[in-house]
Amino acid sequence: MNNLNVSLIQANLHWEQIDANLAMFEEKIWSIDKTDLIVLPEMFTSGFSMNPESLAEPPGGKTFRWMRQMAGQKQAAIVGSYIVKEKNSFYNRLHFVYPDGSSQHYDKKHLFNLADEGENYTAGSERLIVTYKGWRICPLICYDLRFPVWARSQKSKERPYEYDLLLYVANWPDTRVNAWDTLLAARAIENLSYTVGVNRIGVDASKKSYNGHTAAYSALGKQLAFSSAEEIMNVELLAQELLDYREKFPFQLDADGFDLK
Q1: pLDDT tens per residue, range 68-78
Q2: Contact status, residue 149 vs residue 166, Cβ threshold 8 Å
Q3: Is residue 142 flagged as an active site residue?
Q4: Which of 28, 85, 117, 142 is an active site residue?
Q5: How far is the C-alpha of 85 from the C-alpha of 239, rounded, in Å?
Q6: Catalytic: 138?
Q7: Does domain 4-254 have CATH number 1.20.1260.10?
Protein backbone atom coordinates (compact mmCIF):
# COMPACT_ATOMS: atom_id res chain seq x y z
CA MET A 1 0.00 0.00 0.00
CA ASN A 2 1.81 3.08 -1.31
CA ASN A 3 0.62 6.68 -1.48
CA LEU A 4 -2.33 7.21 -3.82
CA ASN A 5 -2.52 10.24 -6.14
CA VAL A 6 -6.13 11.22 -6.80
CA SER A 7 -7.42 13.77 -9.34
CA LEU A 8 -10.81 15.33 -8.56
CA ILE A 9 -12.53 16.91 -11.57
CA GLN A 10 -15.14 19.53 -10.68
CA ALA A 11 -16.96 20.77 -13.78
CA ASN A 12 -20.03 22.57 -15.12
CA LEU A 13 -21.97 19.85 -16.93
CA HIS A 14 -23.71 20.25 -20.30
CA TRP A 15 -27.36 19.42 -19.65
CA GLU A 16 -28.31 16.07 -21.22
CA GLN A 17 -25.53 16.30 -23.83
CA ILE A 18 -23.53 13.10 -23.60
CA ASP A 19 -21.07 13.81 -26.40
CA ALA A 20 -20.37 17.35 -25.20
CA ASN A 21 -19.66 16.14 -21.68
CA LEU A 22 -17.40 13.33 -22.85
CA ALA A 23 -15.43 15.77 -25.00
CA MET A 24 -15.16 18.25 -22.12
CA PHE A 25 -13.96 15.65 -19.63
CA GLU A 26 -11.57 14.13 -22.15
CA GLU A 27 -9.86 17.50 -22.55
CA LYS A 28 -9.61 17.90 -18.78
CA ILE A 29 -8.28 14.38 -18.30
CA TRP A 30 -5.56 14.93 -20.88
CA SER A 31 -4.40 18.00 -18.96
CA ILE A 32 -3.57 15.82 -15.93
CA ASP A 33 0.12 15.02 -15.84
CA LYS A 34 0.31 11.83 -13.78
CA THR A 35 -2.18 10.33 -11.37
CA ASP A 36 -3.46 7.01 -10.01
CA LEU A 37 -7.21 7.68 -9.81
CA ILE A 38 -9.48 10.13 -11.65
CA VAL A 39 -12.86 10.93 -10.07
CA LEU A 40 -15.78 12.42 -12.05
CA PRO A 41 -19.15 13.68 -10.70
CA GLU A 42 -22.45 11.83 -10.52
CA MET A 43 -24.24 11.49 -13.89
CA PHE A 44 -21.24 13.15 -15.49
CA THR A 45 -22.58 12.70 -19.04
CA SER A 46 -25.95 14.38 -18.49
CA GLY A 47 -26.40 16.19 -15.20
CA PHE A 48 -28.95 14.91 -12.66
CA SER A 49 -31.63 14.11 -15.22
CA MET A 50 -34.96 12.38 -14.67
CA ASN A 51 -35.20 11.54 -18.39
CA PRO A 52 -33.49 8.16 -18.50
CA GLU A 53 -35.46 6.93 -21.52
CA SER A 54 -33.60 9.27 -23.85
CA LEU A 55 -30.20 9.15 -22.13
CA ALA A 56 -29.65 5.61 -20.89
CA GLU A 57 -26.94 3.47 -22.42
CA PRO A 58 -26.71 -0.32 -22.42
CA PRO A 59 -24.02 -2.02 -20.32
CA GLY A 60 -20.75 -1.65 -22.19
CA GLY A 61 -22.07 1.27 -24.23
CA LYS A 62 -20.43 4.48 -25.45
CA THR A 63 -19.59 6.00 -22.07
CA PHE A 64 -18.22 2.75 -20.69
CA ARG A 65 -15.99 2.32 -23.75
CA TRP A 66 -14.83 5.94 -23.32
CA MET A 67 -13.96 5.30 -19.66
CA ARG A 68 -11.95 2.24 -20.65
CA GLN A 69 -10.13 4.22 -23.29
CA MET A 70 -9.31 7.07 -20.88
CA ALA A 71 -8.16 4.67 -18.15
CA GLY A 72 -5.90 2.82 -20.55
CA GLN A 73 -4.40 5.90 -22.15
CA LYS A 74 -3.71 7.65 -18.84
CA GLN A 75 -2.80 4.41 -17.04
CA ALA A 76 -5.04 5.50 -14.18
CA ALA A 77 -8.30 4.18 -12.78
CA ILE A 78 -11.36 6.31 -13.49
CA VAL A 79 -14.65 6.44 -11.60
CA GLY A 80 -17.98 8.25 -12.12
CA SER A 81 -21.68 7.50 -12.58
CA TYR A 82 -23.99 7.74 -15.59
CA ILE A 83 -27.37 6.38 -16.70
CA VAL A 84 -27.54 2.71 -17.68
CA LYS A 85 -30.46 0.58 -18.86
CA GLU A 86 -30.33 -3.11 -18.05
CA LYS A 87 -33.19 -5.63 -18.24
CA ASN A 88 -35.78 -2.87 -18.73
CA SER A 89 -34.63 -0.98 -15.62
CA PHE A 90 -32.72 2.29 -15.41
CA TYR A 91 -29.83 2.70 -12.97
CA ASN A 92 -27.71 5.56 -11.70
CA ARG A 93 -24.64 3.37 -12.10
CA LEU A 94 -21.09 4.08 -10.97
CA HIS A 95 -18.28 2.36 -12.82
CA PHE A 96 -14.78 1.90 -11.41
CA VAL A 97 -12.60 1.20 -14.43
CA TYR A 98 -9.03 -0.04 -13.98
CA PRO A 99 -6.14 0.87 -16.30
CA ASP A 100 -6.20 -2.64 -17.81
CA GLY A 101 -9.84 -2.16 -18.91
CA SER A 102 -11.44 -4.37 -16.29
CA SER A 103 -14.20 -2.81 -14.20
CA GLN A 104 -16.67 -3.11 -11.34
CA HIS A 105 -19.89 -1.21 -10.81
CA TYR A 106 -22.20 0.04 -8.07
CA ASP A 107 -25.87 1.03 -8.48
CA LYS A 108 -26.98 3.94 -6.29
CA LYS A 109 -28.79 2.58 -3.23
CA HIS A 110 -30.47 5.71 -1.83
CA LEU A 111 -32.51 7.36 -4.57
CA PHE A 112 -33.37 11.04 -4.06
CA ASN A 113 -37.15 10.88 -4.04
CA LEU A 114 -37.58 14.63 -3.51
CA ALA A 115 -36.56 14.86 -7.17
CA ASP A 116 -38.48 11.71 -8.21
CA GLU A 117 -35.32 9.65 -8.69
CA GLY A 118 -37.10 6.66 -7.19
CA GLU A 119 -39.85 6.90 -9.80
CA ASN A 120 -37.39 6.87 -12.68
CA TYR A 121 -34.56 4.62 -11.50
CA THR A 122 -34.15 1.28 -9.76
CA ALA A 123 -32.17 1.23 -6.52
CA GLY A 124 -29.13 -0.93 -6.05
CA SER A 125 -28.90 -3.32 -3.12
CA GLU A 126 -25.21 -4.16 -2.74
CA ARG A 127 -22.20 -2.12 -1.72
CA LEU A 128 -18.96 -2.33 -3.64
CA ILE A 129 -15.42 -2.50 -2.25
CA VAL A 130 -12.72 -2.36 -4.90
CA THR A 131 -9.03 -3.10 -4.43
CA TYR A 132 -6.60 -0.89 -6.32
CA LYS A 133 -2.86 -0.41 -5.80
CA GLY A 134 -3.14 -1.99 -2.36
CA TRP A 135 -5.98 0.36 -1.31
CA ARG A 136 -9.49 -0.81 -0.54
CA ILE A 137 -11.99 1.76 -1.83
CA CYS A 138 -15.73 2.10 -1.19
CA PRO A 139 -17.41 4.23 -3.91
CA LEU A 140 -20.88 5.66 -3.24
CA ILE A 141 -23.20 8.20 -4.88
CA CYS A 142 -24.49 11.58 -3.65
CA TYR A 143 -27.60 11.00 -1.46
CA ASP A 144 -25.90 7.89 0.01
CA LEU A 145 -23.85 10.39 2.03
CA ARG A 146 -26.83 11.09 4.32
CA PHE A 147 -27.03 7.48 5.49
CA PRO A 148 -24.06 6.59 7.73
CA VAL A 149 -24.97 2.93 8.22
CA TRP A 150 -24.63 2.25 4.47
CA ALA A 151 -21.12 3.72 4.52
CA ARG A 152 -20.00 2.25 7.84
CA SER A 153 -16.71 0.39 7.72
CA GLN A 154 -17.43 -3.08 9.07
CA LYS A 155 -14.78 -4.88 11.07
CA SER A 156 -14.16 -8.61 10.73
CA LYS A 157 -11.81 -11.20 12.19
CA GLU A 158 -9.58 -10.76 9.15
CA ARG A 159 -9.39 -6.97 9.22
CA PRO A 160 -10.68 -4.19 11.51
CA TYR A 161 -11.04 -1.73 8.60
CA GLU A 162 -13.18 -2.64 5.61
CA TYR A 163 -11.72 0.10 3.40
CA ASP A 164 -9.09 2.85 3.32
CA LEU A 165 -10.82 5.37 1.06
CA LEU A 166 -14.51 6.32 1.04
CA LEU A 167 -15.47 8.05 -2.18
CA TYR A 168 -18.62 9.97 -3.18
CA VAL A 169 -19.58 11.31 -6.62
CA ALA A 170 -22.41 13.83 -6.57
CA ASN A 171 -24.74 16.47 -7.98
CA TRP A 172 -25.32 18.19 -4.61
CA PRO A 173 -27.06 21.62 -4.85
CA ASP A 174 -25.76 24.71 -3.08
CA THR A 175 -28.90 25.12 -0.94
CA ARG A 176 -27.81 22.09 1.11
CA VAL A 177 -24.05 22.28 0.69
CA ASN A 178 -23.46 22.77 4.43
CA ALA A 179 -24.73 19.22 4.95
CA TRP A 180 -22.35 18.00 2.23
CA ASP A 181 -19.38 19.65 3.93
CA THR A 182 -20.30 18.40 7.39
CA LEU A 183 -21.15 14.83 6.42
CA LEU A 184 -18.02 14.28 4.32
CA ALA A 185 -15.86 15.20 7.31
CA ALA A 186 -18.02 13.08 9.63
CA ARG A 187 -17.75 9.99 7.39
CA ALA A 188 -13.94 10.37 7.43
CA ILE A 189 -13.75 10.67 11.21
CA GLU A 190 -16.19 7.89 12.11
CA ASN A 191 -14.67 5.38 9.67
CA LEU A 192 -11.01 6.35 10.23
CA SER A 193 -10.68 6.59 6.49
CA TYR A 194 -9.69 9.07 3.82
CA THR A 195 -12.90 10.47 2.35
CA VAL A 196 -13.31 12.23 -0.99
CA GLY A 197 -16.39 13.90 -2.45
CA VAL A 198 -16.57 15.18 -6.05
CA ASN A 199 -19.45 17.51 -6.87
CA ARG A 200 -20.33 19.66 -9.91
CA ILE A 201 -20.78 23.40 -10.38
CA GLY A 202 -23.14 25.54 -12.49
CA VAL A 203 -26.91 25.62 -13.00
CA ASP A 204 -28.94 22.80 -14.54
CA ALA A 205 -32.15 22.88 -16.59
CA SER A 206 -34.30 22.64 -13.46
CA LYS A 207 -32.65 25.86 -12.21
CA LYS A 208 -30.80 24.09 -9.43
CA SER A 209 -27.50 25.77 -8.65
CA TYR A 210 -24.33 23.91 -7.69
CA ASN A 211 -21.28 25.48 -6.05
CA GLY A 212 -19.07 22.42 -5.87
CA HIS A 213 -17.25 22.13 -2.55
CA THR A 214 -15.42 19.13 -3.93
CA ALA A 215 -13.09 18.09 -1.13
CA ALA A 216 -10.81 15.49 0.39
CA TYR A 217 -10.47 14.72 4.11
CA SER A 218 -8.00 12.74 6.17
CA ALA A 219 -9.07 10.16 8.75
CA LEU A 220 -8.78 12.93 11.35
CA GLY A 221 -11.35 15.01 9.45
CA LYS A 222 -8.65 17.43 8.27
CA GLN A 223 -9.46 19.06 4.93
CA LEU A 224 -6.76 18.23 2.39
CA ALA A 225 -8.34 19.81 -0.69
CA PHE A 226 -11.34 22.05 -1.37
CA SER A 227 -12.74 24.09 -4.25
CA SER A 228 -15.88 25.87 -5.40
CA ALA A 229 -14.46 26.63 -8.87
CA GLU A 230 -14.26 24.68 -12.11
CA GLU A 231 -10.92 22.97 -11.75
CA ILE A 232 -8.96 19.79 -11.27
CA MET A 233 -7.60 19.18 -7.80
CA ASN A 234 -4.78 16.73 -7.27
CA VAL A 235 -4.31 15.31 -3.80
CA GLU A 236 -1.89 12.71 -2.50
CA LEU A 237 -3.29 10.29 0.07
CA LEU A 238 -0.51 9.17 2.42
CA ALA A 239 -0.67 5.48 3.21
CA GLN A 240 1.70 5.46 6.17
CA GLU A 241 -0.03 8.42 7.78
CA LEU A 242 -3.33 6.52 7.69
CA LEU A 243 -1.77 3.33 9.07
CA ASP A 244 0.00 5.23 11.85
CA TYR A 245 -3.18 7.02 12.89
CA ARG A 246 -5.15 3.79 12.98
CA GLU A 247 -2.47 2.14 15.08
CA LYS A 248 -2.31 5.05 17.52
CA PHE A 249 -6.08 5.45 17.81
CA PRO A 250 -7.65 2.03 17.09
CA PHE A 251 -11.22 3.20 17.67
CA GLN A 252 -12.58 0.73 15.12
CA LEU A 253 -11.72 -2.16 17.45
CA ASP A 254 -14.52 -0.94 19.75
CA ALA A 255 -17.04 -0.45 16.93
CA ASP A 256 -20.43 -2.14 17.03
CA GLY A 257 -21.03 -5.14 14.80
CA PHE A 258 -24.11 -5.12 12.58
CA ASP A 259 -25.64 -6.58 9.42
CA LEU A 260 -26.74 -4.54 6.41
CA LYS A 261 -30.18 -5.51 5.15
Answers
A1: 999 999 999 99
A2: no
A3: yes
A4: 142
A5: 37
A6: no
A7: no
